[in-house]
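From the shared-data thread, chain only:
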Amino acid sequence: MQVAKVPPNSCAEAKQPQNIYPALISPADWAKLVALQNDQVIAIINEYIALCQPAQVMVFSDEPAEAVRIRQLALKLGEEQELNLPGHTIHFDSYFDQGRDKEHTRVLVSQGKKLSRHINSLDRESGLTELRQLMQGIMSGKTMLVRFYCLGPTNSEFALLALQITDSAYVVHSEDLLYRQGYSEFKRRGQTAEFFLFVHSAGELDEAQRTKNIANRRIYIDLEANRVFSINNQYAGNSVGLKKLALRLAINKANHEDWLAEHMFLMGVNSLSKQRTTYFTGAFPSACGKTSTAMIPGQTIVGDDIIYLKVWDDYSAHAVNIESGIFGIITDVNPIDDPLIYECLTTPRELIFSNVLIADGKPYWLGMGCEPPAEGVNFSGKWYQGKVDPQGKPIPFAHKNARYTMRLSELPNVDANLNHPEGVRVDAIIYGGRDSDTNVPILQALDWEHGVFCGVTLESETTAATLGEEGKRVFSPMANLDFVVLPLETYFQNHLNFGARLTHPPLVFQTNYFLRDAQGKFLSDKVDKKVWLLWAEGRVHGDFRAITTPVGFLPYYQDLAHLFKIALQKEYNQEQYIQQFSLRIPKLLAKLERAEQFYRNENLPPAILRQFKRQREELLALRNRYGADLISPLLLSE
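Structure, as C-alpha cells:
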C-alpha cells in the first residue's frame, strides 16, 4: 500500500494528469485536484479508489458553499438529523462504538524496531496485509469524500497539512467544525506539500446508518508513511483522524524536528488588575479538571485539547492550538458549573450532538440539571425508562461519553490570538493530577528539570463511578501515555532538551483539586481553582514569594488569603491552609515508589532518575528534622 512518489523534474510534471476514473470523479472535482499541482495527492486518491471501490468520489475545496454541501450530505445520508434549534443536529454511533478502541488501535512497527511496553504495536507488514483484505471494496455503493485540512493556523510555521479520505459525511462535517480548511494551503505549496494522510471508512451500515462490523474495527497508525487507517467505526475518537490519531503522527514528527506535540489546553490567564494576559498550557488526565480549568470565568481560551510547542526566535516557547473547534464531553455540562458552554448548547448555532437522548427534537444529557423524559431515541435506538441491554444491564438515557462538536469561535471567551500564525508565548505549564490524600492543591516546580519530573509522575485516582474500582492510582505521564509513539525515555528527553534550549522556559505548576479530609470531604470548592491559577500567574511575574520544599514551591498563607478575598470574596483561614498545604511525607514517599514501579522496565533519562533520588532524600531529611510525618507549611515558612 505504499504510494510511489513522482521524481522531481520528471516528464510526468510537464504532462497534465489524466482522470482515470471519469465515471466516478466529475470534471469539476477533477479540476480541483489538478489545480493542486501535486502528483502524490492524485496517486493516493487513485490508489484508494482502486482498493475501496466507491460508487462516486467527491472532492471539496475551501469555498464556504462546500461546507454547506457537506452538512446537507450528512443529513441526506441519515448520518445526522436536524433538531429543533437552527443549526443543531444529532448523530448516533453504534451501541458498541461509544469510545476510543484501545485494543484495536495499533502502531505499525517494522521488524527490528521497539516501542515502549505501554504502546500497542503490530508488525507493519502484517498490519498492512490485514488492512488490504479488510478494505477491499469497503466503500462499495458509497461516496468517497476527499477533504483538505490544516493543523494549526494557515500560513504559519506551525501548520501541518492533512488529507482526509472517508465515506462518512458526519466525519467530514465534524472536521469542518474542528479544523481549519487546507485546500488553499495545499495549493500554495504545490508539489512540495508534505502532509498526513487519513483513510477512514464506516464500513457496512445498518438501516439506522450505524456501523455493523464492529468486530473488524481497526485503527492502525503507520508512522513510516505518515498515515492512519481507521475502518468499521464511526465514533469520532476513532474516525476523526485529525484528532488523537494525528497527534500520534505529530509526536513522531516532532521527535525528528525538535519541537513538542502535546495533549494540552492553551489559555490566557488575566491578572487581577486585568492589565496583563499570561498564556498557560495544561495537561490533565481524564476527570482531573482540564476543561473546568480552561473555562475558568474571566479568562480566555485558545484551545482545549492539542497544541504544538516550538522554540521561537527569541528563545521563548510559543504554542498554537492545532484545532479551531471543540469535541467535548457533554456529561455534567450544566448552567451552574459551565454557563458559557451550556449557553452555546441551548441556543442556535452549527453544532453536532452525539449519543444523547432526543425527545421531541430536543437533546438531553447526563448531569444537565433537569429531569429527562421517560422515552425518546438514543444510541440504543428507541429508548424508554427500564430498557436493558442483552446482558440485562440498564441502558442510561444518554451515554456518559456523549459529545458535542462546535467551533471555538462560538464561545464568548475565545482568545483573540486563536488564529495568530505565530501562536502565543507560553510562560507557564500546569500538570493536573487527582488524588485524595497526597498532593497539595498547587505547587510550582523548582526548575524545568523538576517540572518535567512532575509531568513524568503525573497520577490520577479513579472513582467508583468511572471504573468501578475506587482509589486505584493510574500514572499518565504528561496526560499523553495513550498517544506517545516513541520510547518513553526519548519522549521525556525531548521535553528536557526543549527546556534547555529556552532562555526563559515556562514555569511549571502541579495542581490537585481533589484533596479530602479524614471524613472524605473535599478540602477545596470547585471555584477555588481560580485562586490557584491566579497565584501561578503572579509567580510568573514575581508578584508572590514562595516556600521552598522538596516537592516544589508552595504559596504563603497571606498571599492566598488576599487572593481569596479579592477574586472570590471569600474568607480563607489558616486552618484551611494548613490542611491543604501540609506535606504528607509517607504519602509522598509512597507515590515515588509507585512511580518507580510503573517505570521498572523502562529506561529513564538520568535527569529523571536524579529527581527521584533528590526528592526521596530531601523528604526523609525533612521527616527526620521535624520528627513528624505531617509537616505544616507554617513550619517550613519559618
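The radius of gyration is 25 Å.
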